[in-house]
Structures are given as C-alpha cells and as structure tokens.
C-alpha cells in the first residue's frame, strides 16, 4: 500500500494538482543522476531533480502480489551536452557504465502554485537490457525480485571451473595480474597494435579498460591477443582509440584445469571443475 502525508491527501481531495515523474539513476560506481520529466526543477527535502537533461518517458508500472518480476521500460533521448562524467549517454551505455544501475521512479504531487506536498515511490529496479540507436536509449528495468531467478542447483558438475576469474572462489587478485599498455599503430574500433610482450592468447578472453583519451573508462572483452601484442576486441568501440591512449589489461581464463595449474595462474588448488567425470554413454 502506498502512503501519503496529510497535506498530499488534502491536495488530492481537491482534484486540482500536478504530477511530476522523478527519475534517479544510481550507478555502480557511485554516481547518482536525478532528472524529472516536469517543465521545471523539482526540489523536495533538499534533493533536486533536474528538468534540464535527457528527455525521459516510460511505460506504465504494475505491482502484483506474489513473486512475479515487475518491469518498466524507459526511453532516454539525450542531447550531446548531456554527460555522465566526461562521456555522453550513448558512450556511457557502450562502455557499460549503466550496467547494473539502480533506477528509482518517484512521483511528486504539486499544488497549482508548484509547491511539492509529497513524493511517493512508484518503482525501484535494476537496469537490465539496454538497446541504443543513434538518438535514444531503450532501457528495461526489472524489480529486485529478478534476484530470485537463479538456476538450481547452484553447483553443476561440469568440465570447466565454476568460478569466475578473480572472484572470491578463485581467490586470485586482479591487481596482481593487471598490465598497463598503450595503443600502437593502425587503431580501429576493434583492432590495434600494442607493445605487450606476453605469449599469444595470454590476454585472450580477458578484459581491457582504457585509462586515457576519449575512451577513458570504457571496457571490452579481448577476443584475441596475438604474439607481438596485436589486440582484437570482442565487440567494437564507440570510436577508434588514438595512438598513445593508455589502458589496463587483464589476462583471460578459459576455465580449463590445464590453464589453472599452468604457470599463468598456478591456482589449481581453487579449481572447481570436474574434468574426470565420464562422458555420457548410451547403451542399446
């Protein structure tokens, strides 16, 4: 049940009021962005939602009893001058900055004199699927009940390791394996040369994050690292990097036992795969 304070209830009883949608984007890096679809800024309890910013619209929200995951769709039409840090909204989506963001939708109830009487929460969820084109972003937001959508049983008997590289089960620290590098000659949105001296495929399936230039903060999975340092990314960048742009790169893991016990990681004690399970056979 939604509750409202006495002034808001009295305002609603008159039938003469205004409603403003308030959007709060809480990113995983700690950045908090607040916007409203109203014509002017809305301030309540010393918090301001800005009217100047990307154009926001949404689908209807629905609340049901039970464990069904509620969803909401938000359409974001940003201007070139609307930034998240130093990136445009489209660049931020491509670099993954909105992945896992918490989205809160509130509604402010205002008198005809534009005085806010109360704010009532309508929806809270996590950014799920993000679709972009040249002009707008389509964001699907799922309620926290999505966290119950997990596969059971949790542990599955399989050849490959069930841990993710550098997670608590793996126990290795990413900071111990990070390597700094810079973009060399002939960069494109997917390939560029570097001076990395590691053996071929040492960084394949790993992660590369730019630390300077227009792509600062942008992450991509490394599809292939060749001997000599040439890098091929799994998905293209929003723009090609410039020669000299710096990055941090982390090795990849194919989850095989041989990789885990090799000199690359030397971590077979934490390997959680079952490579010796017999292959299923069919008896006739």
Offer a quick outline of the entry.
The chain has helices spanning 6-14, 89-94, 257-261; strands at residues 18-26, 32-36, 42-44, 47-49, 55-58, 71-77, 83-84, 87-88, 102-110, 116-132, 137-142, 179-182, 191-192, 207-210, 219-225, 231-233, 246-250. It is mostly beta strands and 284 residues long. The protein folds into two domains: 7-148, no CATH class; 178-250, Beta Barrel (Thrombin, subunit H), CATH 2.40.10.
Explain what you see.
The structure is a single chain. The chain has 284 residues and is mainly beta. It has 2 domains: 142 residues, no CATH class; 73 residues, Thrombin, subunit H, CATH 2.40.10. The protein is built from 3 helices and 17 strands. The strands form 4 sheets. A 7-stranded antiparallel beta sheet has the order 2-1-9-10-11-6-5. The chain has a 6-stranded antiparallel beta sheet with strand order 12-17-14-15-16-13, with no helix packed on it. It has a two-stranded antiparallel sheet with strand order 3-4. A hairpin with a 5-residue loop joins β15 and β16. It is globular. The mean pLDDT is 90.
Q: Could you list some keywords that capture this structure?
A:
seven-stranded antiparallel β-sheet; 284 residues; mainly beta; single chain; 3 helices; Thrombin, subunit H; six-stranded antiparallel β-sheet
CA-to-CA gap between the ends? 61 Å
Structural category: mainly beta
Q: Can you give the helix content as a percent range?
A: under 10%
Instruction: Please tell me the total number of domains.
Output: 2
Q: How many helices in DSSP terms?
A: 3
How many β-strand runs? Answer: 17
**What is the percentage of strand-forming residues?**
25-35%
H/E series: HEEEEEEEEHEEEEEEEEEH
Report Rg.
Answer: 24 Å
Q: Order of strands across the biggest sheet? A: 2-1-9-10-11-6-5
Largest sheet: 7 strands, antiparallel
Mean pLDDT, all residues: 90
